[in-house]
Write a structure and sequence with these properties.
The complex is a heterodimer. Chain A is mainly alpha-helical. Chain A has three helices and two strands. Chain A has a domain of 38 residues: Orthogonal Bundle (Histone, subunit A), CATH 1.10.20. Chain A has a two-stranded antiparallel ribbon. In chain A, β1 and β2 form a beta hairpin. Chain A is flat and about 55 Å long. Chain A starts with a helix and ends with a strand. By secondary structure, chain B is of the alpha+beta class. Chain B folds into three domains: 287 residues, no CATH class; 116 residues, no CATH class; 59 residues, Arc Repressor Mutant, subunit A. Helix content of chain B is 41%, strand content 20%. In chain B, β14 and β15 form a beta hairpin. The N and C termini of chain B lie far apart (68 Å). The chains are: A mainly alpha, B alpha+beta. Chains A and B meet through α3 and β2 of A and α2, β10 and β17 of B.
Chain lengths: 95, 478
Amino acid sequence: MSLSLEDIQRIARLARIRVSETEAAQTGEQLNGIFKLIEQMQAVDTGGVAPMAHAQEVYQRLREDAVTEPNRREAFQAIAPQTEAGLYLVPKVIE
Amino acid sequence: MQWETVIGLEVHTQLTTKSKIFSGASIEFGAEPNTQACAVDLALPGVLPVLNRGAVERAVKFGLAIGAKLNRVNLFARKNYFYPDLPKGYQISQFELPIVEGGALTIQVGEEQKTVRLTRAHLEEDAGKSLHEDFHGMTGIDLNRAGTPLLEIVSEPDMRSAKEAVAYAKALHNLVTWIGICDGNMQEGSFRVDANVSVRPVGQQEFGTRREIKNLNSFRFLEQAIDYEVRWQIEQIEDGHKIQQATVLFDPDTGETRMMRTKEEAHDYRYFPDPDLLPVQLDDELIERMRSELPELPQQKQSRYQRDFGLSAYDASTLTSTISTASFFETTTEALTAPDHKLAANWVMGELSGTLNKEGLDIADSPIKPKSLAALLGRIQDGTLSGKLAKEVFAAMWAGEGEADAIIEAKGLKQMSDAGEIEKIIAEVLAANPKSVEEFRAGKDKAFNALVGQVMKASKGKANPAQVNELLKQKLAG
């Protein structure tokens, strides 16, 4: 598998990263190198091996359902660029 | 051409935990903005999610209630997209191996029953809220809701009309509130419905292209939105256009749906297993504990009401439309000295429901309690009250004038069952209405009813109607 320049631009757009054409070409080469490595791994026969969701064979510990977090709005909002009426303000987004 | 509608629903139910799904912040509704958003909810660097046992338990309970398969090992995944009310840049959800798979729900549409299959139900976190007004061109973000536990319940495309979709949504709403995993408050967004709608020519096997109507927060809007969407799709196809897969919004003011985004603009969510969360294992102890906590379910109650009480399918389904209705009905019948389930059912579904509806009250807040209603029904059973008088007493009870017996006493509403008294009235009525008597003797049955009416009127509605019938027949025959 190898990525086209178009693929690179699409991935960059999804990740909200701006890439110039030169960068896109470079990134494409690097990513294609990584894909070669993946191809090598994919050549291994994994038939009969269950898909792995986590590197360790342990299961999630569950937390008791209790409210343990106090209101720390003031401290959190002290580092926010802009707040008003208790809200975090961000540039307008309407989908 | 004849068209068939195909509908599948995705419902987001907010779970009734105290704290969030991955943090110890409160999920109580209506708090000041951002006072219930902790470091985990804000996605500050270095924080890690820890799964809430209460959310897992509620999902298991739901799976058991719909006869689904519980995935003993299930996984959390990241669903990636950018939006300011999602600070992490991804929503933690389940993709492969959701906690609940399959299952089914029986719905009642008019007199008919139908089974709707469920695809899956998975746990996920809610996003925050964006407020687009009044911030000098900026958007305000409240993250109190971020991290609230949701169970997203996905049905198969098994519904064939807006009515069926509403019946399914109501049955699901009833079930999740019945087993106590969701408070069902639609105004507060605790139960939100997305509808996938398509149409196809009757007889065609493959589905038409679907459009998804997002975020319907009332049963009425659900029905209106689907009806509009179906008409729109049929018109488009009949005009020679193709339906494009899209996400649409319903505008309650115009009653129309409008396009939000097409398939080409659809998000590419790039799901992958969340490395911050280990696979979740459901052990026997947890599953059995949840099974033992399940109350008798609506479907089970319906069968029992039909089998043991001789009620119709329709009555049984109406009485189990909410857990509070069922418990009101059961407490009423239990309080009757002589059990008469049909009488109790008629009054709970008739006079009581009617009055509650008129006053906009929930049955749990009824001013007349089951024991008081049973006392009133007892007076119908022993012949003290006719149905009509009982309604008068009911109205007085509703108005807070006291218990049935006290009202009967105070208003002198006791039914007249003294044969002598009734005969006296009959004699007077017959004397005053010779024409009706003659007509009856000439074979006109209607004349008999007119005479009964006169007697009832003369007794101010207090005479026992069955007795009047009997005595009048005797008199006229004699």
